[in-house]
Amino acid sequence: MDSSGYALHREEIEGTLARGERKIAALPGLQRHYVRRGTTLIRGGGGHDYVYRMQSGWAGRVRNLPDGRSQYILIFLPGDLFGVKSMFVASHPDSILVMADSVIEQIDYRELRQAFDEDRDVATRCIWQVIEEERRLHNWIVSLGRGSAEERLAFFLNEIRGRLVLSGTIDHDARAFDLPMTQPQMGEYLGLSTVHINRTLKWLDQAGVATKRGRRVYIRDQGALAGLAYPLVDRHERATADLRAGA
After folding, report:
1. Among residues 192, 179, 183, 114, which one has the least CA distance to residue 147?
2. C-alpha to C-alpha distances, 177 to 1, 35, 119, 173, 214, nearest whole angstrom
3. What pLDDT, on the 0 to 100 scale, is given for residue 10?
4. What domains lie within the chain, and their CATH numbers?
5. Contact 220, 227 (CB under 8 A)
6. Contacts with 141 (C-beta within 8 Å, 6 or more apart), sequence order
7. C-beta of residue 72 within 8 angstroms of C-beta of residue 189
8. CA 70 to chain centre
9. pLDDT in tens, 118-151
10. What is the 3-state secondary structure (H, E, C) of the chain?
């Protein structure tokens, strides 16, 4: 991950973050696994012994309500640490579901917690992931509270594309990427009904902005997409070339 992946960071901690990234990747207990789509890595309401690092694929944090409804809360993409809460809480309030066949590294929270306690670089990198999740959650609170359906969907597609570029998953000039979420899952993330998601996707297609065909998204006008998303983005998205209009 390059420095642009650390949103709004202070320059004096850039080296610490980079070293922490490398040290976590080198921990002896870190094990790599292939995980199939549909696997529940963490089940809400229970304890869990592992922290994860996404190498390739998608996962989402989801809250399942007693009446069967669900709300997707965060999307995890390559480069993300997730399940960091395992170091601190005895029970996870939400589940984490794998949404595409993925390669995921896992480490026992006790080993990571020891490194966290002994090495400030590791501690800073772990804390940074929580800070980044908070930033993304703040953006989505604004989106859900103030964004139109078109703005929310444009913000979502623009952010996902930018994060995939920053992680090196797709090229800088790529205008297509896999989006493994179903329309109901997208609705559960964006706070829209499946019918509204379908209608908004058709609107983006007809407007020549973006098209979704199966699991593949094609950005036809990056400037228009970023322009639609612009009211909802924060300082980081506005300042980062791979996230702003004209990228």
Report:
1. 192
2. 19, 20, 37, 11, 11
3. 75
4. 3-137 (2.60.120.10), 148-239 (1.10.10.10)
5. no
6. none
7. yes
8. 18
9. 999 999 999 999 998 998 899 999 999 999 999 9
10. CCHHHCCCCCHHHHHHHHHHHHHHHCCCCCEEEEECCCCEEECCCCCCCEEEEEEECCEEEEEECCCCCEEEEEEECCCCEECHHHHCCCCCCCEEEECCCEEEEEEEHHHHHHHHHHCHHHHHHHHHHHHHHHHHHHHHHHHHHHCCHHHHHHHHHHHHHHHHHHCCCCCCCCCEEECCCCHHHHHHHHCCCHHHHHHHHHHHHHCCCEEEECCEEEECCHHHHHHHHHHHCCHHHHHCCCCCCCC
The residue that leads in pLDDT, 99 or 237, is 99
Place of tokens 């094990």: 31
φ, ψ at 138 (rounded to 5°): -60, -45
Question: pLDDT tens digits, residue range 150-186?
Answer: 999 999 999 999 899 988 999 989 999 999 999 999 9
As given in the structure block, the two tokens for residue 135 are: 């930033």
For residue 229, what are the β-bridge partners?
A: none
Starting at the edge strand that comes first in sequence, how are the strands of the sheet with 210-213 ordered?
Answer: 176-178, 216-219, 210-213
**Residue located via tokens 């501690």:** 123
- Name the residue type at position 173: D
Please state, in angstroms and rounded to a whole number, the distance separating the CA atoms of residues 195 and 202.
Answer: 11
